[in-house]
Structure formats: C-alpha cells, structure tokens
Amino acid sequence: xxxxxxxxxxxxxxxxxxxxxxxxxxxxxxxxxxxxxxxxxxxxxxxxxxxxxxxxxxxxxxxxxxxxxxxxxxxxxxxxxxxxxxxxxxxxxxxxxxxxxxxxxxxxxxxxxxxxxxxxxxxxxxxxxxxxxxxxxxxxxxxxxxxxxxxxxxxxxxxxxxxxxxxxxxxxxxxxxxxxxxxxxxxxxxxxxxxxxxxxxxxxxxxxxxxxxxxxxxxxxxxxxxxxxxxxxxxxxxxxxxxxxxxxxxxxxxxxxxxxxxxxxxxxxxxxxxxxxxxx
Length: 280
Hints:
The chain is mainly α. The chain has 15 helices and no strands.
C-alpha cells in the first residue's frame, strides 16, 4: 500500500476529514490531499506527528514511504550501552582513572529513565546514557587519558538535564567547573551564546568535551531533528564550535591531533547535511 493510501485509509477509519488531519499535523488540507492522491509524499520529519494522529507507528509509515526510497536501515544506535559500560570500566581500571570509574555509574544513575530524541525512522527508544558513554569512548579513542576530561564527558549533561547542582557533584573542582560551564540555564532570559562559548573556550576540559559533544550530535541530527533545527544547529556549529576548535588547537596543544579528527568529522558531516537539505 502506498503511503498516501495508508494515510487515507487510517484517516477514514478514524472518521477524520482531510481538514482535521491537516490541522492536527500543521499542514494545509491541500497537502493532505496531494499525499492521498500520490502527487507528493509527506516530509520525513512530519511522520512522527502523522503517525501519532493516525494512531499508527512511524515505522509503518516509513516502510510505505520506503517504497520510493533506497531500502536502507537508519540505525538508532551503533553500540550496545552495556558493552560500552564494560569497556569504559575496564579502561578506567587499566589507566587508573578513579573519577572516570565513578562517573560511569553516577551518569548511568542520573540519566536513568531518560531517552534520546527519537529517530523519525523508527519507534526504537535509545537510553540517554548512550550519548555520554559514546563521548567518553570517543575521547579515549582519540588518545585522551585525562581523568577530569573523561569524567566531564560522562557528566556533562547531569546538571542541565537531571537537576543536579555542579557543587553537589562528588568529583574534583576541575570537573565541577567544566560541567558548570557546559550547562545552559533552564531560564534562557539574558542567555548569550557568545558568553557561553567564551567561557568554555577558557577552560581546556570544557572546550574539548564541548567539541566532542558537538561532533556526536551533528553526526546524528538528520535522523531526529526537524529541518529547521538542523539549519539552526549547522549555523551555530559554524559560528561557534568550529572557531572553538581553532582556539583549542592553538591554546591547548595537547589536543592538537584530537582537534584535527573532530574538525574533519564535523566539517564533513555538516557539508553533507547542507547538500542534502538544499536538495530537498
């Protein structure tokens, strides 16, 4: 069944008009009519809202849309959380990283029950801890063995997302300061991107963790962000994160080689994203 036929069938089963469906998913009735007549297909980023309104799954809609696209599987995650946890625990013991060892468990407990922003391609829910664990593994693979850096990578979101005060973290002052610099306030009144990134740039631990964080996020954004959010994120990355990498390279030479790898990954990702968005 074509996706337009599926939308029409589900809409009628629910007793909805085209106008009601359009209003619920923030498009025009003409757009819904074109979907159902097979003239156009819904934007992939609308599928979550359409699935919710029609009481079906994104996976089913994507499978129907997939008849017009390559038969690719878009992965929700690349590594198992438990495998990364064991790997990090082993590395922490081998390298004598006491704070990192504790942060592995602290972050796991702090983020318990939290989930990553879902992919538009499936209904799989990825635990939020996947993100800091990947960051810590990434940092270690780049040759970073600094205990405070790896612990900060694991803890960088616990204040912003879990309501933990940085002073209450049972870790060193270096980690407290870096996590605090990386945390954006809940109330954005008076918040300045310029001041935020300037503060991060002055702290080597916060700076390299922010770079790794952004590298991870831009690598996955096309699967979960709206197009508007993608554009905003690319603009912020070019305005603040790429200059931050230049600062790190010159101010903190211990991260020179890591910066090259991170910068290459970010550049290659956002240039591919820009090309894909501009061809929509």
